[in-house]
Amino acid sequence: MDSAYVCEWEKRSKSTHCPSIPLVCSWSCRNLVAFTTDLKTDEDDKDVNHMIHIIDTEHPWDVFSINSGHAEVISCLEWDQSGEFHRDVSLLFWTWGCFNIEFCEGSRLLSADGDGHIKCWSMSNHLVNTWKNMLSSSVDGDPIVALSWLHNGVKLALHVEMSGSTNFGEKFSRVKFSPSLTLFGGKPMEGWLAVTVSGLVTVSLLKPGGALLTASESLCRLRGRVALADIAFTGGGNIVVAATDGSSSSPIQFYKVVVSVVSEKCRIDTELLPSLFLRCTTDPMRRDKYPTVTHLKFLTRENSEQVLLCASNQSGSIVECWSLRKEGLPVNNIFQHRSPVVGEKQPTILKWRILTTTSDLERVSAVALPKLPISISNTDLKVASDTKFCPGLGLALAFHDGSIQILHRLSLHTMGVFHGSSSTQRPGDEATIKRQRTTGPGLHFKALQFSWTSLALAGVDNHGKLHMLRVSPSMGQMLDMNTTLRHLLFLLEYCMVTGYDWWDVLLHVQPNMVHNLVEKLHEEYMRQNQALQQVLATRIVAVKASLCKLSTATAARACDFHAKLLLIAISSTLKSLLRPHVLNTPDKSPGDRLTEICAKNSDTDIDKVMINLKTEEFVLDGPPLQSLQQLIQWVGDFVLYLLANLPNQGSMVRPGFGFMRDGASLGMLREMLVMIRIWGLLKPGCLPTFTATSDNQDSMQLLFRLLTKLWLCSRDDSPPQEPDESLIDECCLLPSQLLVPSMDWLPVNDGVIVKLQGKHPLRLQFGKVSSLTGAGSTAPLEVFARSPSTQKMDNLRCVHMGVCPTEKSKACTRCGCVTMLKSPNDTNAMKQWEQRWIKNCLCGGLWRRIPPTLT
């Protein structure tokens, strides 16, 4: 485990960010981290602004700070998980062994404070650095100690035992789990649940119209003080709340909470469950040693039968792990001699049993639990142990000496250690000791959060700095390259199937691994059934593009993958404009028939291919075609660029190389040229424009003929062949016949992931982009280079924005794709294209607002 980067606040003369008490941090599966600080405008000022800061981990300096408006300190932050999988097509999992791609989790954030107020924040205009308060609820004057979104009924299990399987459905299975509350038809109802310090549980439900339905109820008849609480969910749709008054001599109480809607009103029913006493309080040697319970956590959100407890004193802590088990109830001797009744079973009772406990530890300052839903069956645990696969099996403890330990979630034995700056201090370093005495307590973490694959830790220290730590998949154990690749591949597949961001997996990919990972990922993808391949078609391209950017040897292939994403999107958009000529829709759509005819017809004459098509299906009004001309122009320029650069594809891989052997993409380009040719007969203004050296040059005919010859060399139904000499000679002559455009590939990635190859952590500063300059050891490739006088490109609309654009723009947090915030078009066809990318980029990344100087 090592540090990847540290981001700190700029030192100002008056205003200062200091960590709030308690300091809370939360990491969404869309790669957004939220944490809190208190902002003092003046050191002598008693008024404190309770701030919420939201960053994406790829651009940590681009922080969005919200003056939350909370009157008291913020005690809880919780990202939503209500949109993990699109509910309308949840049957995809059962029929195809997969999950649907649409997801929107991480777009809403709950915050709660010490005055009982809860606020729900959402993205404004789907931008990660613009947020607004959407809804709120309150229990006035009653501090919130625990907060959670209601469960949506989706639970996954990741099986390490099946990591070698070729079927994604066997590796990642869906577990039967009921939502906390359902609407008509079984649709999960959204909302949140909170526990207050006075022992009150409050539920707020989001009605379909947007209104809130709120109710409160006592956890038990005799309400008492609740210092700590946590919330978990059961497979039957119930909610379990664990609570303690903070004293280690008091019992840890558990309650079952059932939420329902009766006559348009929210109803809450509670029931007391078996409780437990800490083991350390029953040990005569430790009875009074640890008087306070400082941390209470269920091991996972969907497992209410295992709980982690930490008791502390001023200088040390002890951690215990408990499990709820069903045990037989002993029967009195009087009843043992009677004749047994057929079918009668021995009565059972639920009882908490301690799994394991640690020895005396340093004082624990923060706890982080894994989010990866790894299966903990005996076979899965054995395979994980044999292959040294550790993600999801470790929990993190941060200590007041600045160190972090990763402990096994079941046995609590140490798996890895991170030594902070204060814990690595040499005993004889008196200057450091004196400095610490004058500046206060040493550096230590006040809040920790695991990423969603457990390969990274985000922590906020007592000085308000954000730390990003890498957590090795093998916890530092030596592995051969094949095993390391298999572990990373397994987690990339998990992210690809679930839709979770794979940024933390990229932290562990070295440049020499990129090629093998891309090839192995493609092999596993091709082993899936056709339906699943279609669902994951764009997701795998986005994963490959992210991988290829990590190495200079494969950076050109990243250009190809991004171009392929745009190509797929334009193709599907143009085909969606086609309509069948007759009302009784045939078995195949016009787009499918176009694909079938173009695949069978290998004629190099574009007009002969058109003869076999029903041209009446291509009849469209003029305005839609004219408004999509810039997309059509991109297709024409791209085909010309590929063919003109065919002779240059030698030992050095250049952008476009990946398409030379991609029969499916070349076939897609042929189909679009045929469509464009037909539309050009109806509306000549929509045709792509080429600068030809001859007035009678039929550019579309020439490009289609050369493209068809190249496609015939790489068709899927025949063995691949090298392009013949005549084709290469004709492509060599292309620049003398047509002016070859300079393709504007995506801008150089300005994120941190390509800068984290070294061993030393990056030192960044919130609000300063320039703090990253020069951090990397490799210069960008020529294809990514941009001179100040270069025209800036809108990568989605395929239009130029000028050398110094003044339009407000947004950029993708993952690939760097830039596009204007406001649409310059008024036509419905172009608005339809733009609406497809209003929430996410082509690659699935989120959008962030950027100033005009960074466009």
UniProtKB/TrEMBL annotation:
It is found in: Nucleus. This is Mediator of RNA polymerase II transcription subunit 16. PANTHER family: MEDIATOR OF RNA POLYMERASE II TRANSCRIPTION SUBUNIT 16, THYROID HORMONE RECEPTOR-ASSOCIATED PROTEIN-RELATED. Component of the Mediator complex, a coactivator involved in the regulated transcription of nearly all RNA polymerase II-dependent genes. Mediator functions as a bridge to convey information from gene-specific regulatory proteins to the basal RNA polymerase II transcription machinery. Mediator is recruited to promoters by direct interactions with regulatory proteins and serves as a scaffold for the assembly of a functional preinitiation complex with RNA polymerase II and the general transcription factors. Component of the Mediator complex. The keyword Repeat applies. Residues 786-848 form the Mediator complex subunit 16 C-terminal domain. Residues 135-418 form the Mediator complex subunit Med16 N-terminal domain. GO terms for cellular component: mediator complex. Belongs to the Mediator complex subunit 16 family. Keywords: Activator, Nucleus, Repeat, Transcription, Transcription regulation, WD repeat. Residues 491-679 form the Mediator of RNA polymerase II transcription subunit 16 central helical bridge domain. One of its GO terms (biological process) is positive regulation of DNA-templated transcription. Its main location: nucleus. SUPFAM superfamilies: WD40 repeat-like (SSF50978). It holds the Pfam family Med16_N.
